[in-house]
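pls design
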């Protein structure tokens, strides 16, 4: 098997493992909390620990991979995922579970490292197809947790959920350690320690109140203070990076029109995407006595989300070949508009299972196009020695968008709690309408890049077969 095929298999396996951990415990969070003696705040920390760890590790380890070799850092990050999955499966209490989630979050660095490995291993005529397929796998993995958590935990318990990421991580380690070429550094210099500390600081200060603001109170001094600290540290971080001879994040690259518009779209569509993922199952599981809920159990709610995975994977694998006809910038806009249409459909038509499943299918098409085109636009727009940090920052921005989206949805739904303790229908309608607006605005952002009117793509990469097609032929 060729080195490029081995690289694709290793990276695809690791992407699925890490992406699934993002949403795997959400549907069964209360069950895990009950078994581990964690209250609502403790349950939130199970999500926050992963979020913060991934947000910090993604750009730092991505940059380290550019400096010391991507293969080495890829194996380190994937090893942390495997260890964290074992700890989570056997966690006796909340403390051990939080340590496990931090280790799992370090795997977020697999995304920028994986895209860099693929760029190094694939010829230019197959690169777009490979990145599109991997992006689809990453998106499918993110939604996979929501779909399988209910059925799997009902059969073997919530601890069995961590078997999937463990097996995938071990497989990725085995294939990667034996099959990946020992990549040489693609950049020179060193990691700017001050910039790394400032980046970590403002990410933590921003994500903490975003994920815990509902419990702490949005007007509390703690939340307001953390937002202020995040803004201050972010401003200082930008100044340090601009003046540094060895910047962690090259601000000249971040200011490229194709990069900043893609990142802004990732922020907005990420907010819509994660908000819908989190609250579509909750809408379906709302008791029928509410007058609008379907009273679905966790397994049925997972099945409602299943069409999303199918369409997301299908369109994602076609994104590379499709780019010969529809440029990636156009795919990004079309995908955002489809996601917005799906969210609006859920807001207006949520009276039966089929309506929600159809909306989920459309959401999968939109999400697949967005997640496949985004890294292609980034990778095609930055120098080789900036791939790790640029894709890492893009993944981070989508993560921040996801935190913002789930927070906005929670605020909209929670603001309408009735005497029964259930939110009213208007709360869900407002939340999904907001999601639709965020997605549509995200789809309009690429038009701010006026250079696209002259040159639709920053660099032209011909597209041949997708790597999956070549693997199938080889088999």
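designed seq:
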């Amino acid at each position: 098997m060729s080195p490029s095929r081995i690289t694709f298999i290793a990276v695809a396996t690791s992407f699925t493992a890490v992406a699934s951990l993002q949403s795997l415990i959400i549907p069964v969070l209360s069950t895990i909390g009950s078994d581990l003696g964690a209250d609502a705040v403790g349950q939130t920390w199970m999500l926050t620990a992963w979020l913060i760890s991934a947000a910090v590790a993604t750009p730092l380890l991505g940059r380290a991979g550019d400096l010391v070799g991507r293969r080495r850092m890829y194996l380190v990050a994937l090893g942390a995922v495997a260890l964290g999955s074992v700890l989570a499966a056997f966690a006796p209490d909340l403390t051990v579970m939080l340590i496990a989630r931090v280790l799992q979050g370090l795997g977020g660095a697999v995304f920028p490292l994986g895209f860099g490995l693929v760029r190094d291993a694939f010829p230019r005529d197959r690169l777009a197809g490979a990145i599109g397929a991997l992006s689809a796998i990453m998106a499918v993995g993110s939604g996979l947790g929501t779909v399988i958590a209910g059925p799997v935990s009902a059969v073997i318990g919530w601890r069995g959920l961590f078997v999937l990421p463990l097996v995938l991580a071990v497989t990725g380690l085995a294939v990667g350690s034996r099959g990946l070429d020992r990549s040489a550094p693609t950049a020179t210099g060193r990691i700017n320690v001050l910039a790394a500390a400032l980046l970590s600081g403002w990410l933590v200060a921003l994500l903490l109140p975003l994920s815990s603001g509902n419990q702490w109170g949005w007007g509390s001094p703690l939340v307001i203070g953390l937002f202020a600290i995040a803004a201050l540290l972010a401003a200082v971080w930008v100044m340090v990076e601009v003046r540094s001879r060895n910047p962690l994040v090259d601000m000249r690259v971040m200011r490229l029109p194709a990069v900043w518009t893609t990142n802004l779209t990732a922020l907005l569509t990420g907010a819509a995407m994660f908000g819908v993922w989190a609250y579509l199952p909750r809408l379906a599981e709302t008791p029928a006595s509410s007058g609008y809920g379907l009273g679905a159990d966790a397994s049925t709610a997972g099945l409602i989300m299943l069409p999303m995975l199918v369409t997301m994977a299908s369109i994602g694998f076609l994104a590379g070949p499709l780019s010969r006809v529809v440029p990636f910038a156009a795919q990004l806009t079309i995908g955002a508009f489809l996601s917005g249409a799906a969210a609006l459909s859920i807001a207006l038509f949520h009276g039966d299972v089929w309506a929600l499943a159809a909306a989920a299918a459309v959401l999968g098409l939109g999400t697949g196009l967005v997640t496949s085109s985004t890294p292609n636009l980034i990778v095609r727009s930055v120098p080789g020695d900036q791939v790790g940090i640029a894709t890492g920052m893009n993944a981070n921005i989508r993560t921040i968008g996801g935190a913002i989206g789930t927070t906005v949805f929670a605020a909209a739904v929670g603001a309408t709690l009735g005497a029964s303790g259930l939110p009213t229908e208007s709360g869900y309608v407002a939340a999904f309408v907001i999601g639709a607006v965020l997605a549509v605005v995200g789809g309009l952002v690429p038009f701010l890049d006026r250079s696209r009117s002259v040159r639709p793509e920053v660099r032209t990469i011909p597209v041949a077969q997708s790597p999956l097609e070549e693997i199938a032929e080889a088999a």
